[in-house]
Model the fold of this input.
Amino acid sequence: MLVTGIEILRHAHENNYAVGAFNVNNMEIVQAIIEAAEETNSPVILQASQGGLKYAGVEYIAALGKLAAHKAKVPVALHLDHGTDFQQIMLCIRHGFSSVMIDGSKYGLEENIAITKKVIEVAHAVGVSVEAELGKIGGTEDDIVVDEREATFTDPKEAKIFVDETNVDYLAVAVGTAHGVYKGEPELDFDRIKTIKEMVNIPLVLHGSSGVPDESIKRAVSLGINKINIDTDLRIAFATAIKDFLADNPDNIDPRKILGPAKKAMKEVIKKKMELFGSVGRA
Ligand SMILES: [Zn+2]
Done:
């Protein structure tokens, strides 16, 4: 069933586990995520980035996501990842997304609060949950590039002000992760996660979670992370499976034969993540 993001994440927040939010770009990825969620009895969030919407079109992504959610035996939310444009966010809401992110992290605190409030006013009026971001998460997420030197950690005091003033449903925090593939091993600021959680007491979101060691993810979840975004790890599984299949079967031209192993590889990665996040059996 299709549910709002906060319905899924409030339960995770109250019961101290995290739910995976996996980026979708086509049918096979949607199916891999839903099959993994059903096989592990896990709630799940399908999310589309602006790049994903540009690639597939908002109508296709919304139709795929809603159909998958309605057919699924587990709770599914359909979420816009890193929305930066008010009109596009409204378009996603109109097409049935049950959760949206407004990423105002490139602005100062006051302006971030103002644009987040503007989205929340509309979204909450129609029962759609909202994620915002405070602090700057480094790396590259489609068209959004944040240089390592510009990345700044979330200030817990600012987070408290931000949450009180906006009434945001869940907050993405910058605590040492980055988008894309890591060069070294990321070091998370666990004390910061703990302090922010104590001060805001709402679900927290970890971006750039692909490639973060399992032990760090577990600890972050135990301290209050409730939504974990995964994109890069799925891309790696998808591309590796296709390359391997075509290396072994260079003459095969059947899209189903080529994409089938990629779907299976993604599903295995997703199931492992669900296990790690603690969402298995929570649906
Ligand atoms: Zn992100």
Notes: Residues 82, 137, 141, 179, 207, 229 surround zinc ion (CB under 6 Å). The chain has a mean pLDDT of 96.
